Amino acid sequence: MTARSALLALERTPRSHLATTPTPLVHAVHLARALDRSPDAVWLKLDGHTGFALGGNKVRKLETELTPSRLDGVDTLISCGGPQSNHARVFAAAAAHLGRRCILVRNGESPDPPMGNARLQSLLTPHIVHVAERADRDPAMEEARRQVESEGGKALVVPIGASTPLGALGYARAMVELDAQLQGDVAWDPDATWIFVATSSAGTLAGMLLGASLLELEGLHLVGVSADDPADGIKARVVDLAGQAAELIGFRGELLVHRVSVTDEYVGDGYGVPTPEADAATLLLARSQGCSWIPPTPRKRRPAWWRRSAMVGYRRATGSSSGTPGARSPPPCPARCRPSGLPAPCDPGSPGARRSRSRGFARGSRGA
Ligand SMILES: Cc1ncc(COP(=O)(O)O)c(C=O)c1O
Description:
By secondary structure, this protein is of the alpha/beta class. The chain is built from twelve helices and ten strands.
């Protein structure tokens, strides 16, 4: 099937309507100036504005994951995540919205009192199964499924982040949406465009890779900034997922795998644990552009494209995906900001300070 027919198939992909789209594409003039770039050099694609259950990137993936036909006869939806998982929050809300019971398997220590996503997850479903580690989540979800089925129900298990081939189709659609928005700008040059996006369970970037391939954006640079896992593993998952998503819509053309890179340079102490660079970037974004995101994951993305903007003569950069509830969770770093508004140096024993001595991938739970 040609790219054009696959694009049509993508457009016709069944979905449950959850997201408010298109999300805004904002011309970040003041941020560009603050970064010493030309005023038309930086754009922000605000996928925090997908709306449903406070928005973020999970909404698009769940739209294509929870299709009406897959939900036929299903009375219980099961998924997982950490206490600050945006996915778990949006998933529980989607289950309620679609009239299904939701069981969440939650790993890691829950904040006491519950704050941010942890609090919203408990608000959205009373069925939360607690497990210690990430590795315990899949067996606990299978156990929950068996339990539902032994009681005569039918369950659908959705993996972390809804990063499945179907979920990735949600981000292939987002790429088509972004392309249409950028086409409206006469000066847009795909070959000089770098897109930075947070990456963890890989579905978002996989969908964007598929979308870019269908649109034949051969010069585009797609950069995934890891929030937790090593770059090689994420890249392999991105390529695998994009390939499987391509099969779903009958696309057999070339995936632009060589246009995708993943960096794990900004992981620090793990998912959701801030770094001084990320805090500084968050302040800059807030004060130059009025964006008040303080989510767990995309923090990691920002310093990456700041730095790239200083290093590479690209013309445009767009960020994508976000979530807000992490703003209401307690700060993991003891001293976040000085009164002046500049990021405080971390306490020598704090996670932020230890990060600069040794980088670890194991700490923290992938929250997706
Ligand atoms: C707000 C936000 N953006 C991006 C990502 C990364 O997306 P994915 O898990 O599809 O790689 C996450 C997940 O951790 C997230 O919470």
